[in-house]
# Entry
Amino acid sequence: MCIRDSFNIDMEKNEYLESVEMNTGVEMIPCESSNIEGFGYDSKKKQLWVAFKGNRVYRYDDVPYEICNGLHQAESKGKYLAKNIKNKFETTGYELRN
# Structure
């Protein structure tokens, strides 16, 4: 992959996360992951929002701050999500449309 290709991918990722932010009202944090583009946390509602590749966004309800912070600190976001979040909190999936 050349620098130009990497730049285009980063721009697409940033535009995607900006779109998620506009739709959810939650600031998204980009991350390096094979499956996750970024995530954000609404501390008042205790909602964790995770933006996956392929325009799929999931909202996890009643997530304690400590779990969100653990995701933020995790070396592997996908492994942490699978072990500590997936199937442990009520989940709603969304698909962003262009």
